[in-house]
Records
---
Amino acid sequence: ADYCLKEGLDFKQLLPLIQETASGLYKISPRDAQTGPAIRHDSETIHKHLELLKAHPQLKNLYILITESIQQLK
Amino acid sequence: ADYCLKEGLDFKQLLPLIQETASGLYKISPRDAQTGPAIRHDSETIHKHLELLKAHPQLKNLYILITESIQQLK
């Protein structure tokens, strides 16, 4: 939410995504529900994201750690 | 979910907590919704958690990074 504030985004717009992700886990496992660049090994998008996080070193570290952990899933 | 499997826990038992956390964000901001040992600066509990994560170095690193990020909130 702090990130959104700093970047002029409205955190509320993310709520449906968060809500649906949580609800989805009743139907499929986190592993099967996983989407996004990490599980696709989409390095181009990952590099774009890291570039966008340049001014947010802590979020960038989290992003790297979570990306690594997702990529070990398969 | 992998952690639960390895530790003999049922991930499904966490679903209501995940669901309620997501729904709660419609009413209060993530900052105001934050609970747990990090925001309380409860080092005793944090050390117990880190001890329990000894066999899971990647989760332990995530735990440390997220704890640091929560503790900077206030």
Note: The interface with chain B takes residues 1-2, 11, 15, 18-19, 21-23, 25-26, 29-31, 58, 61-62, 65-66, 68-69, 72 of chain A (CB under 8 Å).
---
Amino acid sequence: MSSPEPIAPGVWRYRFGTPEEASPVALRQADPALDRMAGLLPVDECPFAGADFSFRTERRGCVLTAPFDAEEGVFGFGLQLQSHLQSGKKKHLRVNSDPVADTGDSHAPVPFYVSTRGYGVLVDTARYASVYVGTHLSAEALKERAEQRLGQQQPGLSTEEIYRRHAFGREVVFDIPAAAGVDVYVFAGPTMRDAIRRYVLFSGGGCLPPLWGLKNWYRPFAKDGEAEVGALLEEFAKDGLPFHVLGLEPGWQTRSYPNSLVWSERFPDPEAFAGKLRSRHWRLNLWEHAFLDPASPIAEEIASHSADTLGMDGLVPDFFDPEAERLFAGEHRRLVKGGVAGFKLDECDNSDFISYSWSFPEHARFPSGLDGEQMHCLYGLAYQATVDRVFREEGQRHYSLVRSSGALAAPFPFALYSDLYAHDEFLRGMINSGFSGHLFAPEVRHAASVEDLVRRLQTAVLSPVSQVNCWYMPHAPWFQIDRQLNQAGVKMEGAGEVVKLVKQALELRMRLLPVLYTAFAHYHREGVPPFRALVVDTPEDRRTWSCDQQYLIGQSLLAAPLKAGERVKEVYLPQGAWRDFFTGKRLEGGRTHTLSDLSLADIPLFVREGTVLPLAESAEGWSGGGPLTVRLHVYGEEKAEGELYADDGETFAFERGDCSWTRLTWTAAGGLKADGCPSGEMFLLDLANPVLHAGAAPASDLP
Amino acid sequence: MSSPEPIAPGVWRYRFGTPEEASPVALRQADPALDRMAGLLPVDECPFAGADFSFRTERRGCVLTAPFDAEEGVFGFGLQLQSHLQSGKKKHLRVNSDPVADTGDSHAPVPFYVSTRGYGVLVDTARYASVYVGTHLSAEALKERAEQRLGQQQPGLSTEEIYRRHAFGREVVFDIPAAAGVDVYVFAGPTMRDAIRRYVLFSGGGCLPPLWGLKNWYRPFAKDGEAEVGALLEEFAKDGLPFHVLGLEPGWQTRSYPNSLVWSERFPDPEAFAGKLRSRHWRLNLWEHAFLDPASPIAEEIASHSADTLGMDGLVPDFFDPEAERLFAGEHRRLVKGGVAGFKLDECDNSDFISYSWSFPEHARFPSGLDGEQMHCLYGLAYQATVDRVFREEGQRHYSLVRSSGALAAPFPFALYSDLYAHDEFLRGMINSGFSGHLFAPEVRHAASVEDLVRRLQTAVLSPVSQVNCWYMPHAPWFQIDRQLNQAGVKMEGAGEVVKLVKQALELRMRLLPVLYTAFAHYHREGVPPFRALVVDTPEDRRTWSCDQQYLIGQSLLAAPLKAGERVKEVYLPQGAWRDFFTGKRLEGGRTHTLSDLSLADIPLFVREGTVLPLAESAEGWSGGGPLTVRLHVYGEEKAEGELYADDGETFAFERGDCSWTRLTWTAAGGLKADGCPSGEMFLLDLANPVLHAGAAPASDLP
């Protein structure tokens, strides 16, 4: 049996059989952040002994077995929309854009899991592996299991009831097709949170988006040209809606679906257009996908560096072929130099659940030697890396979107998104993403009701990307939620009231910018996911294992956004004391609180007792590009502390130390203290008038 | 390139690479019906030349390519519930009990398809192959495709719209995991119908159930014991409902889910019970599954002949291990000798779409050397063969149910069923089953409304198995459709009227028995599926390609059962003339007819003009066991013909020629003639008073 080889601080590798040449680690696109890993608590011994694993090869591929017990909570496997706790489940880690059931299929499946016992396991494969988390008992366990079942004397009277009566097995099994071997990476804790941090830092550390990326995004109607976009910006300005990122499809997918990467005549002077946007403090994000139309200037050259099969009727560039990568990056360099601040990389996954098999098949062949299955597992990653490299070479940070991802993706500043739209799945997906070094954008598209619209937006503003994506509607959904009437230009009744609620949510996002930016800095430096499940911080508290509709943001916030129809909300607050973000009301942790009499304006958001929270001051001038005034909000009665990260917000200078961490402390006796000033020009710290949220203390200035 | 080897009349085999040892043909459980194949139209040349196929192996397995063109209609792939025409689709042929989308997953996927061009292709694999039917274009086709697309100048405004704009590729691709080779069997036509017949006869010929199997079935509440069953039979007799097959779970899955194959104390004397049923002209079908509880008398002996992993917490017998087969068959021999007439073989598939992975995993290992994936592809088949062999050895025909099947299953007298329940999918599944030598039972369980109940029953009586399956309700659904109220014993209002409609449908089934039995005899002798899609008989008529809610029964019937909510029904009648089964009204073929003013009693059922239809006479004495009086119904004005098959209805004597085919002819001038008498004692032919259905001719005696 293999013995563990230390690879990085607290990370060991087991090698079983002969691993394939193409794997997430073998083709990794970012280096491990070894320097930053050194800051983690040292762990001297691998949490697994060689004998803990078993491995065998068979005609079908290979089978790896890791220990598991029924008292263990297993989480992860990438963007899982339909389940949170994975113990007892089978997951087929296949890249798919329409996971219609809890199968494991995902835009971004990852063969990585973490356990409440405080370790993580990455199975380094670019195959559609199936994982069985304690699903099956071995034949030897027959008698023992029969004794457990003796109590069951009545027949089940529904299929569900019959199928529910099962026991946990004692293994996590990875069933890996095609491969004759695999490397397994074990990440030590000692805590679950530390294991995730090691995985993120081993991936290269979490991304740090430019500050503008954390502001509010809007994607207008796909038919809009320059004039329509201009009118829209005017309208947002008039309504005081603080949007700062514009997402566009520049007409390059218009003629049909493959992409030319050439702006259409709807935008006659793209560079001037981008410049105009920037002068109004907007950034531009372009919607694209990788499958190239013959009208693209690089089509002819890239053809021989593409798959042998078309995808979406276009050429499928092989990002692992240096020439394809160079050509594709070249087109993006041109765009970035022309003022584009980010991209939305669409269609880089696959689908087995709709009638049209639009992406390349698993049996496609690529010049680099990868087959279609391996390429699906790595395509989103390589696509991100190709685009990301362009920005890095330009010395410009970006924040973008991507529809597929995989293992070791944390350093890429891309958030995942989905064409699916269930609000509860969007929340669960965002929360689960944190286990595997991903971000997820629960964007707002349309809504079934005003309540649905407002609730979805309240979730979006408390997520990695605050985006409204109205590509199929000419007006914003707060103008008219009905799609047909929206297209007909009919404003809905009461739209004015809805705009107020929309503004309130978007402003909350703006106010939270210093907190969010600091949370991402922690992600970058220490590997702590800025949006994460409650169980990450408190795995010892079993009540957090099922919390898949509420989550932590940064060090001190807990969000439990409402969904349409929720008139009463149960929120579980972990051990310790918490305060309502808006009212300062104190709530005891370690128990479930029932929120009732909820209004459309309510957003359940809680602050850990003893926190100094740096919030951007609500300002009329949020449409401007100047620094944000940061006021400090104190949640506590005796003492409180917090921190504020800052840098230039745009470049990679922070990686060379050009940044600041300002520690903020407050005591009832001594008042507020800050250990220095934020660097750069993003934040103006106003220490003079902290807002005290101390329950019976003076009321806050907030609604 | 491989050259075709003739295997059977009109059947050729291509061998590519080194095929696996375990495959449907290699492990076939019935011999080809070579004698009967000789009766087919001879075809001298293989419809495919070696160069038509391409084949390659790769690390993932192997890839086989067959020609396809966009004008070709491809059908088949086993029990497909969500689509009919497969051209343009990708299908993943994985064994699954809950296909939630049109993915190819199925209780009974089969790597066999037929083309409207008049040939069939069986890819002989026991792997979860993916089939791409003209889904993709090769990279070379880029420019050509771009020219086709030039007309598309507007962006798509919905995901569906974007994904719909695709072209057909020119290949059918089988992507087969793990294997280094595969045999391909090509079935000549010249017509599509002939290709299906060759496949069915190559499988061993279609099954011929005992006559009782075609009568009406009822499965009562799972908690019922002998007393409750007795009361139920009394009630059916009182209401005049002609049920003759009782389906039971004899309490052997009661303690928990694995099966002991031992009757529980609810049935203290099983043999006496079975005898009592038979004396009342009922037959007994027992619900079971293969995964064994340790309480089973054979558990200890069979353990070392079972999988290394439990399924449903029970032992998984390896049916390809002769000792497991012997032990398992032994238990069934005991039951059959004790009066059991058939079985319902449950849970022999798998599921990836529910949260509990209850069946054995793909990586399970079996003593016979098969792995779990291969075993899933073959388990339903081997289970059927094991049980079927017992009946054959006892010289007793049976008609049973099974939840999973595969290739070459036609000779096994089992109908498939599903826990899914969409009425349109049940119809489509029944119709699609015919392409691959399967039967499907669209059973009635519960209903959302009285209309839903009646419509579902009207479908069931026009299907391979006419079954009401109320295992989770103590009373029949016509007593109370609401599940809760049914369990509470509350009779619904108007139940009396509903019983009349139920009786009418069940009586229709009884009247059709001679037609159905004859249709199955054709299935056995000539391979013509008794229930089949319109396209099978008229592939040249493109309008039939989309007919997935109406179908042919035997030689002369066309059924288009109604579903709840259908107040108006469009029915397409193929070329030729047709008559309404009930009224004799003449309808021109080659066009769509709109039926309106539909009442709950209406059942759209049509007879080919010029048919003499042998129908069992409606009789009060249908609860008895005597022969059925057959009256002849003439649909036509000048001349008509028909036939009636008969044998002893119970044994295998018919295979030795102990049976009769009675040809029936009628002319307006000469009246009715029959060329002999039906053998056996099943039918009493009454030639004296034929019923003439000739439109303006004397009205029929039917409602």
Note: Confidence is low (pLDDT under 50) at residues 696-703 of chain A.
---
Amino acid sequence: MTEDNGFRIGSEALWELARDTLTDVGVPADTASLVAGILVDADVRGHPSHGVAMLPVYVQRVLEGGILTHATPTWKHLSETAGLVLGHGGFGQLAATMAAEHCAESAHDHGMAVVGVRGNNHIGMLAAYRRQFTERDVIGLILNVSGPSVSAPGAQFPTLGNDAICLVVPRRTGDPFIVDFATGVVACGKIREAALRGEAVSTEWLLDNTGHPSADPKDLDRGGSVPVFGGYKGLGVQLIIEVLAGVLAGGTVSPLVNRQRQRPDLPMNCSQLFVGFRTSLLGDTDPDALLHTLDLAIAMGYKNSPPDCYFPEQRERLHTARALESGIDIPKALADRLGWARRA
Amino acid sequence: MTEDNGFRIGSEALWELARDTLTDVGVPADTASLVAGILVDADVRGHPSHGVAMLPVYVQRVLEGGILTHATPTWKHLSETAGLVLGHGGFGQLAATMAAEHCAESAHDHGMAVVGVRGNNHIGMLAAYRRQFTERDVIGLILNVSGPSVSAPGAQFPTLGNDAICLVVPRRTGDPFIVDFATGVVACGKIREAALRGEAVSTEWLLDNTGHPSADPKDLDRGGSVPVFGGYKGLGVQLIIEVLAGVLAGGTVSPLVNRQRQRPDLPMNCSQLFVGFRTSLLGDTDPDALLHTLDLAIAMGYKNSPPDCYFPEQRERLHTARALESGIDIPKALADRLGWARRA
């Protein structure tokens, strides 16, 4: 039992709860299992913004038609090393899983591969698709174009998606190396977590609908926006994602994507790109040793000891250990919305 | 004649000067022509940090052995869609040109391609390799791993390269769309430009060799560093480049790369990755219209009029027009160092 009178639960039991919440609104069992697994994975890794906190949105979208529960992704185009999946407005995780599998398999067999997804919905945390790559000794680059919630440097209004980029690198021994982040100075979900907890946010995270800095997390879904990270260079990263996952893969860009909360009645029509490179594609290389060198070098750049988490996956590893040992906290507001309160 | 008593010169004449400066120290004519062209291209585009201001460094490195003037890059590995070029410590532009050509040609023929470069030297502004891609209707992604001059978020000392990333997107009509930037909050060359002009820099650009913010541009080459852009997310971009251009392509990472100014006697042993995707790889798409949508959307995000340059290539287009009309300014300090002063 946590302080806010929510509850704490093991990952397996949380997965069952999430799955049942989806099947209760008519989602087929296989789809519900897959989607629930991807959400709980985010909670385990310490990113609740991409975890079961998404369920109220998914449920609303299922009920209003934004997610077509019985849509099945199909291949529009498929060659040995390139493919395009059409999501048909179903759960985004279905098309994304299909794309990640094929991309990793093809890259393993042929050295490199690229698979796009078009006409899709929210696919959750990009790092959730890591195993398809790491199991096959393939480096995976995953890009996502989302609906407009991010403002350009110095701009007042949201015109760009909180697009995401993820790199998955298998290590020969130990956990994979993963970089996974969105282009907003903060993930929208982190602002919504604060709203759920009734807490204020940093005014560097949020502009209200008049373009002024705001500490009220509710302003995000009242026409507010999150500034792009890193100023003009961050905009550069954003535009690289827009071109690769939008223009190349999706025939779209984020200003044309439907925001999932604002239009629960419409598929987002968002798109993704998966690129795979076999680790050995360009010759012998030792990712473990080189990543270790990077880690050590960065740590040595601090005059005193480095921060607790200065290198990707350190934070996620801590959270995973904690979640597997002690379970995952579900805030009361979320439990109430999902009718989970009785499980406490 | 500019204020600082340097001189103004047309791009063609500047190219000849640059070429002759290189042949004077024994660089073969073909190589000197190529390298001079890539440097002058940066000056024309308004990035003098990557322009002929590099010549004093190149000349010193040629004289001391860091650049082997007669080295010829070779293919270590070559298939239809993947290749690895060995630079053998020659001018980086040679191996990079070979890699860009093959990558773009292969991607045009087979849909996608990837070419790495290993054992290389400085290759100049990444956008200089745009024509290989745009002429073949291929989207090009170019990544470079450099020697350590960048400090991690909150760190005091330089441990990472000012790595660079560039995306080249051909438009059906008009100039290509290009994103091109390095991971430092500012390009090291911009700090050195300020040093040449005897000007102070923003203390957000630079830490001195004790890890304190500094406004003295000379501190950069006295063991100082440039903070990575965008904090922890910027570090994420850095690490994506390290893995793709370093680990995958180069069998290296930036802490292992020799800094060209600190070790003029040694090849940098840096590496690059070139990835090409045929624009039509995943189906019909209209890059011109989608890029126009992005441009308009971003402009509309500003309550009043947007800044003069809010979208990539706007600044470069202005500079190119100005350079072609009025010529390029060469600062006196640079002209003196290169013995060009007599041309004023």
Note: Chain B touches chain A through 82 residues (CB under 8 Å).
